[in-house]
Amino acid sequence: MRAIDLDGYVSRLVADGVVQSECSPILSGLANAARSLAKVIASSAKSGDLGGYVNASNGSGDAQTTLDVLANEIVMASISETPLAWLASEECETPVALTPGAPFSIAIDPLDGSSNIETNAPVGTIFSIMPTAPCGTSDATFLQPGSQQVAAGFFVYGPKCVLFLTFGRGTLTFALDPEFGAFVLTSDSSTISEMAREFAINSSNARHWSPAVHSYVDDCISGAEGPRGRDFNMRWIASLVAEAQRILVRSGVYLYPRDKREGYENGRLRLVYEANPIAFVIEAAGGAATDGTHRILDLRPVHLHEKTPLVFGSRREVELIARYVRGLEGGHRPYQLFSDRGLLRI
């Protein structure tokens, strides 16, 4: 059977009236950027220290690597002439005006996980395509709830270069064919199981967690002998796109909660161009995504670089975590990581 590439698949959706025609050149531009980035990342050993930090910070205040800056330039060059009114990037403090009156706008993290470059861990590009607000301003456009997204997805630059994409109904998977240079459809129905046997969290921050997060992790780690009645594996790659890819492939749950550290009180991930697109992809695959209690896609951003806690993955596990959080609201009791006791016995 003949392989279906990204351009061909989107053209079919346009012909069927499922997707607006303006989406096609935008996604083609993003695919071109991803191909270029995949080559740059693969050849970074010959290109110098692309993972080194430059003497600057991005729009949300994080230190920039050389590759962050280059990725932003590649993405902007690839989509600047597509039907996009505004481009909001993690690397830019304010949105960039592109094509006045264009029906769509894009929020993007050009290179998620760039600090992992030197360890050869997977990195990626995350994007959210929004309808441009009727008034045409960038604030009105990007401060819409994530439920208004037209399309969203992320590329992963790892052993394979992969694209996970959704238009809100089902999650599609494309892999870059290195011989032909095209993103070829590998699955049109990625599905996340409701049950999870893996959870991902950075346990080095355990001393800063809330009692609810302590309780949830303790009960998972207690395994088949504990209240959960089954064994769990713990994972942590420190790359959002890699964590999301693993969950889309074999289910599980990811937690990046708020904690007591300065600057982490409202979480660490960016709502507009990280949490919203990931949540859109995850929900389309049958999973769920919350800030611990509230659905991510229902949140209305206050500003472009707003941070949020993020929990996503297998639906039943995400819902259970929300029950842990709600059950401990206003209360406090001491917890020791990996203790024998937990709040809920499920």
Structure characterization notes:
It is a single chain. By secondary structure, this protein is an alpha+beta fold. It has two domains: 6-187, Fructose-1,6-Bisphosphatase, subunit A, domain 1 (Fructose-1,6-Bisphosphatase, Chain A, domain 1), CATH 3.30.540; 198-327, D-Maltodextrin-Binding Protein, domain 2, CATH 3.40.190. It has helices at 6-15, 23-42, 44-47, 66-79, 138-142, 211-221, 240-250, 271-284, 315-327; strands at 53-57, 63-65, 84-89, 96-97, 104-112, 123-131, 151-157, 161-166, 171-177, 182-187, 198-200, 233-235, 253-256, 269-270, 288-290, 307-308, 310-313. It is globular, with a radius of gyration of 20 Å. It starts with 5 loop residues before the first helix and ends in a 19-residue tail after the last helix.
Task: Give a quick precis of the structure.
This protein has 346 residues and is α+β, with helices and mostly antiparallel strands. It is 29% helix and 23% strand. Helix 1 runs antiparallel to helix 2 (23-42), helix 2 (23-42) packs antiparallel against helix 4 and helix 6 crosses helix 9 (315-327).
Rg, nearest Å: 20 Å
SSE arrangement, N to C: HHHEEHEEEEHEEEEEHEHEEHEEEH
Number of domains: 2
Secondary structure: number of strands: 17
Write down the oligomeric state. Answer: single chain
CATH class of the largest domain: Alpha Beta
Which architecture of the largest domain per CATH? 2-Layer Sandwich
Provide tags for this entry.
D-Maltodextrin-Binding Protein, domain 2; disordered C terminus; 2 domains; globular; five-stranded mixed sheet; Fructose-1,6-Bisphosphatase, Chain A, domain 1; alpha+beta
